[in-house]
Amino acid sequence: MAEDKPLSVVTCTAPVNIAVIKYWGKRDEELILPINSSLSVTLHQDQLKTTTTAAISRDFTEDRLWLNGKENDIGQPRLQSCLREIRRLARKRHSGNGNSGDSSSRSALSLAYKVHIASENNFPTAAGLASSAAGFACLVYALAKLYGVEGELSEVARQGSGSACRSMFGGFVQWVMGQSADGKDSIAQQVAPETHWPELRVLILVVSAEKKHVASTAGMQTSVKTSLLLKHRAEALVPERMSQMTQHIQQRDFEAFGELTMKDSNQFHATCLDTFPPIFYLNDISKQVVALVHRYNAHCGKNKVAYTFDAGPNAVLFMLDDTVDEFVEVVKRSFPPENNGGQFLKGLPVGSATPSEELLSAVVRDPTPGAIQYMLLTKPGPGPALVEDASCHLLGADGLPQSSS
Ligand code: DP6
To answer: Could you tell me which residue ranges the Diphosphomevalonate decarboxylase-like N-terminal domain spans (predicted)?
Structure first.
């Protein structure tokens, strides 16, 4: 920390993640402790990322927060938990360094300074992609850099949003549920780095969503209260699935990885239906995507594509790079673009393919124009990073958002 400067500022970026063994349900709402472990793939920040700038200055009179350019309430309890935890760790670290010296008294002083935070996504929030995971991971990472805190940060990110703890690492990441009541052992760990499976691709189908769905925090509360299926899943099924999934990833066994991914997504949505009153996240288009993937796999005689859905209708599809061109064409034929000039295919480049008539007649049924808004191709990617380039700061020298200052 450069406490002498009028303004200390850092900018960081963090990724989105998509769970292949789903987290759904808490045993502690305050600390965000889950009822089962989960496992996810971190998506590449070249396509989807949050950028956060955090600054402290003796001139700031209050903590302030801007999200995508608009001032937001910094008083939200989860944000406060993260801020409090990082400041506590910073205090601990500085007092551990011996609290008599000049530099530590300056550190203690800067801990009393107010913080300004600005955060932006490079993807539309309306796309319904899990932005809170990347958002809280980025916030915690940036604050840690600002206050010079190192060590176990996934435990702090978890207190912002459960799934955020998994965005603290790149590649393939498990969130170990832990046992202790204080949450110290409920942390994320990397299972394999992003370089482990270079052929793996992730194709996100952004479904044209009509209405807002039940937020995950509220949805999972009702599920924990009412679904015996969720209880059974968490206690009896997920432990085994966690070790199976880890093994499939380690062995880069796409068929098995894909199958378990689809089954776990289906089981999560089954627990939503078993919730009372029931929760529906999949819409008719999601179901059409499910059916399309199964027809395609049946035609190929093996699992070449796998779907997973979170608390919304968008499909996230896994496949290997040699399947992408053909499957993208299959999606285009099934959901002809109707996006009024917008780009239909975003992200990594896709080559052209001419699927055989035999394949098309076997898998494409009743094309639904306009049902998919756009597709985004990405791949596994690294965890949060510090941005060295000062021109990327979202806050100006006056500590206000660059655009509005
Ligand atoms: C369906 O992490 O958004 O995406 O902990 O209440 O913030 P809170 O919930 P959140 O839930 C994510 C649920 C999920 C599955 C998953 O990511 O594992």
So the answer is: 14-188
- pLDDT for 255: 98
> How remote is the CA of residue 279 from the centroid of ligand 1, in Å?
15
CATH number corresponding to 200-378? 3.30.70.890
Give the ligand 1 atom nearest the CA of 215.
Answer: 3
In short, whether 22's Cβ falls inside 6 Å of ligand 1 is: yes
Measured between alpha carbons, how far is 353 from 56 in angstroms, rounded to an integer?
52
Mutate to test the pocket of ligand 1, among 16, 31, 216 (most ligand atoms within 8 A of CB): 216
Q: How far apart are the first and last CA of the chain?
A: 24
131/203 Cα distance (integer angstroms): 17
Ligand 1 contacts CB of residue 41 (under 6 A) = no
Tell me if 135 CB under 6 Å of ligand 1. Answer: no
Angle, alpha carbons 212-218-222 (nearest 5°): 120
Flag whether the pTM goes above 0.90: yes
Give 283-327 pLDDT, tens digit per residue: 999 999 999 999 999 999 999 999 999 999 999 999 999 999 999
- Please provide the CATH number assigned to the domain covering 8-194+383-392: 3.30.230.10
- Closest-CA residue, ligand 1 atom 4, reads 310
pLDDT exceeds cutoff 80 at 174 = yes
Residue 235 has pLDDT above 50, yes or no: yes
Ligand 1 atom 3, closest CA = 216
Q: Where are the domains of the chain?
A: 8-194+383-392, 200-378
